[in-house]
Amino acid sequence: MNSTSLDRSLVEQLVRQALRQSSPTSTASPAVASANAPGWVDGKPNLRVSISARHCHLTDEHVEILFGAGSVLKAEKDLYQDGFYAAEQTVMVVGPRRRMLGSVRVLGPTRPFSQVELALTDSISLGIDAPVRHSGKIDGTPGCVLVGPAGSVQLTQGVIRAARHVHMNFADCEHFGVHDGDMMKLKISSPDCSVTFEDVLVRADKAAKLEVHIDTDEGNACNLDAATEVVLKKSGCGCEKK
């Protein structure tokens, strides 16, 4: 009798398990989802810190004006974030009093508005008082002239110093305990040149890979090429308290 009851109990357990696995509403466990997250290595987030050198984003209309009717951006090198690339095309950026920067790389794909992203030293060189802004926040920013091989474009706004930020997917957000729009801090340790950057904006997207973007001035300040350790933490987490 005991053997018969045990067998029946085991069968019922196996049936329930099979039904759960075949249910259309079942979802992968957090561990499985995280293991398959974009950019993760060996089941863990893989942090990359990249220097975002001066560049510009263009609309389809401005691409045709600058490079000729029917022109489209041509990818030269894929960026770390899937679907984004450095284009073959470059433009000249002209500021007040005809100060200029030549061969500024265009990044693709095209956008609904054109935008130029500079470091502080770039903006000083151009004579433009470019404010620190997050990408897309261009209202009230200064403009410039873009010159290409087929024409020129006068931007009335869109020149910014790109604020530091971190791209991450939702599994990364869960790992760090943050959400889109939160602020984090990045510590870069390098010989005699360590720096902690505050105000690193979280930009979350399901397809993003964990990557912090800083500009060339910031990268030089911390000697990023010689870094021995990079640590990303949630701001205000109390990690430094003893």
SSE inventory with pairings:
Blueprint: H1 2-22, H2 30-35, E1 48-51, E2 55-57, H3 60-67, E3 75-78, E4 85-94, E5 100-108, E6 115-118, H4 120-126, E7 132-133, E8 144-147, E9 152-155, E10 159-162, E11 165-168, H5 170-176, E12 183-189, E13 195-204, E14 211-214, H6 216-221, E15 229-234
Enzyme class: transferase
GO molecular function, one term: metal ion binding
EC number: 2.3.1.222
Summarize the structure.
This protein is α/β, with parallel strands linked by helices. The chain is 23% helix and 33% strand.
Overview of this structure, please?
It is a single chain. The chain is of the alpha/beta class. The protein has 2 domains: 53-162, no CATH class; 164-234, Barwin-like endoglucanases, CATH 2.40.40. Helix content is 23%, strand content 33%. It is built from 6 helices and 15 strands. The chain has helices at 2-22, 30-35, 60-67, 120-126, 170-176, 216-221; strands at 48-51, 55-57, 75-78, 85-94, 100-108, 115-118, 132-133, 144-147, 152-155, 159-162, 165-168, 183-189, 195-204, 211-214, 229-234. Strands 2, 3, 4, 5, 6, 7, 8, 9 and 10 form a 9-stranded mixed β-sheet that branches. A hairpin with a 5-residue loop joins strand 12 and strand 13. The longest helix has 21 residues, at 2-22. The radius of gyration is 24 Å and the shape is globular. The model is unreliable at 1-5 and 22-32 (pLDDT under 50).
